[in-house]
Write a structure and sequence with these properties.
Order of helices and strands: HHHHEEH
Number of helices: 5
Number of strands: 2
Structural class: alpha+beta
Largest sheet: 2 strands, antiparallel
Helix content: 55-70%
Radius of gyration: 20 Å
Strand order of the largest sheet: 1-2
């Protein structure tokens, strides 16, 4: 019989994987375009969803939610008060699938935000 914590971890991994389908498809399309010069996925799938709000939701918000869900499934946080003191306990229950999804979500979101920042701002050298 599986414990409740394992079930919640598996459920978090399933939800995280569902939220990361589009970013994984996007990075696969970009890799195929750069390495193999095959832009089929990029043109037929990704560019059809090139509406700014949808792109932000799928490339930033969904991986962010997947990151938080998998982070809280790995970390077990608890609070309690004893004799006027608050005691905070953090237990780590690492599951490889949750950690992999956590890392992919973090890297995907960081790459998209870094690209958006670098694409929209120019570095101007200061004159002394």
């Amino acid at each position: 019989m599986r414990s409740t914590e394992n079930f919640l971890s598996d459920k978090a991994a399933l939800i995280g994987a569902a939220l990361l389908i589009f970013p994984a498809l996007f990075w696969t399309a970009v890799t195929a375009d750069l390495v193999f010069k095959d832009s089929f996925l990029l043109e037929k799938v990704i560019l059809r969803l090139d509406v700014p709000l949808i792109a932000v939701l799928l490339m930033v918000v969904a991986p962010g939610i997947a990151f938080l869900i998998n982070l809280f499934s790995i970390l077990r946080l608890s609070f309690r008060a004893e004799e006027g003191e608050w005691i905070f306990t953090c237990r780590l229950q690492p599951k490889m699938l949750n950690i992999a999804l956590l890392l992919f979500a973090a890297c995907s979101t960081a790459c998209v935000l870094l690209y958006a920042f670098l694409e929209n701002f120019t570095i101007v050298p200061s004159h002394v």
